[in-house]
Write a structure and sequence with these properties.
heterodimer, A: 115 residues, mainly beta, 6-stranded mixed sheet, B: mainly beta, 0% helix
Chain lengths: 115, 116
């Protein structure tokens, strides 16, 4: 079974600075998808960014980018120019290619943004 | 176009009672997924349903839990004879079809179940 590990329960960053959240995963599959979700206090799960494993290019969405290292099974999220609204829980998630749509989530990292 | 609607937002039950959690998917979505989030944990998959069919229930506890997605009306997650360990946030997500990615997967805001 696949597992997702987020080794940083909590992180903090100064407003306008850059922070990197770590995520590693374990799988024997070659094709899969990786995601970062944001969960603010409202509990709404918001998709931040996704990466297809067959793509070598790292995904980027505005201030959010990933460092995908397939051989190392690492998928970190970099947030540039951090804003107060970025404060939330961040979850890394894995999905197999084909078959069920279910996601496997890590335990999350709580990000605090200091003004 | 309203998002995924879950109700109630908060539900309090005493041990032994039944809990019914409702999820109305986004308009045009025929696939529904239920996840459970225990305190200090990530979301864990429970069940995947299409209209009138359970596709994958590998994450559902074998007893007391059931789910349905009828032809008409919302999807229902039912927990019978609740215990304190059932206290969690239950999330529903919907998608229009089974695609290659979760790009079109939308989550509701969850139902917080508290068992006294």
């Amino acid at each position: 079974a696949q597992t997702v590990t987020q080794s940083q329960p909590e992180m903090s960053v100064q407003e306008a600075e850059t922070v990197t959240l770590s995520c590693t995963y374990d799988t024997s599959e070659s094709d899969y998808y990786l995601f970062w979700y944001k969960q603010p206090p409202s509990r709404q799960m918001i998709l931040v960014i996704r990466q297809e494993a067959y793509k070598q290019q790292n995904a980027t969405e505005n201030r959010f980018s990933v460092n995908f290292q397939k051989a190392a099974k690492s998928f970190s999220l970099k947030i540039s120019d951090s804003q107060l609204g970025d404060a939330a829980m961040y979850f890394c998630a894995y999905r197999s290619d084909g078959g069920s749509e279910k996601l496997v989530f890590g335990k999350g990292t709580k990000l605090t943004v200091n003004p | 176009n309203a998002g995924v609607m879950q109700n109630p937002r908060h539900l309090v039950r005493r041990r032994g009672q039944e809990a019914r959690l409702r999820c109305s998917p986004m308009k045009g979505h025929s696939h529904v997924y239920w996840y459970r989030q225990l305190p200090e944990e990530g979301l864990k998959f429970m069940v995947y349903l299409q209209k009138e069919n359970i596709i994958d229930e590998s994450g559902m506890p074998k007893e007391r839990f059931s789910a349905e997605f009828p032809k008409e009306g919302p999807s229902i997650l039912r927990i019978q004879q609740v215990v304190r360990g059932d206290s969690a946030a239950y999330f529903c997500a919907s998608s229009p079809q089974q695609g290659r990615t979760n790009e079109k997967l939308f989550f509701g805001s969850g139902t917080q179940l508290s068992v006294l």
